[in-house]
Amino acid sequence: MAYNKWKLLWSNRAEDDLSKIEKEDALRIINKVETQLVHNPIELGKKLIGKYQNYFRYRVSDYRILYALDKNEIKILILKVGI
């Protein structure tokens, strides 16, 4: 079930992470986040546990995207991109 499109925000850290990986991989990550994750971040992502229980991760190829949700504002904050 798809939901309304969420507003997407990239942290400075996530932008810096993207700048350090291969351009083709970075473009693939951005595309997946902007075309898929923004429509259904709760079901597409995996909720983390323990001290990270307020965060989700989403996998694109070998990379994982760490993000938080603001359900009141309907926002996704991409915090980090890494392997």
Largest sheet data: 5 strands, mixed
The CATH level-2 architecture is identified as: 2-Layer Sandwich
Quote the distance from N terminus to C terminus: 29 Å
**Count of discrete domains:** 1
> Which outline best applies?
globular
The CATH superfamily is known as: RelE-like
The level-1 CATH class: Alpha Beta
Question: For the largest beta sheet, what order do the strands appear in spatially?
Answer: 1-5-4-3-2
Report the sheet-strand fraction: 25-35%
User: What's the average pLDDT?
Assistant: 94
Uncertain segments of ≥5 residues (pLDDT<50)? none
Structural class: alpha+beta
Stated plainly, the CATH topology is called YaeB-like fold
Using only C-alpha atoms, the radius of gyration works out to 12 Å
Total number of β-strand segments? Answer: 5
Elements, N to C (H/E):
EHHHEEEE
Q: How many helices in DSSP terms?
A: 3
In percent, how helical is the residue content? Answer: 25-40%
Features:
alpha+beta, five-stranded mixed sheet
Describe the structure.
- By secondary structure, the protein is of the alpha+beta class.
- It has a single domain (7-82), classed as 2-Layer Sandwich (YaeB-like fold), CATH 3.30.2310.20.
- The chain has helices at 12-19, 23-35, 41-44; strands at 7-10, 46-47, 55-60, 63-70, 75-82.
- The mean pLDDT is 94.
SSE blueprint:
Elements lengths: L6 E4 L1 H8 L3 H13 L5 H4 L1 E2 L7 E6 L2 E8 L4 E8 L1
Parallel strand pairs: 1-5
Antiparallel strand pairs: 2-3, 3-4, 4-5
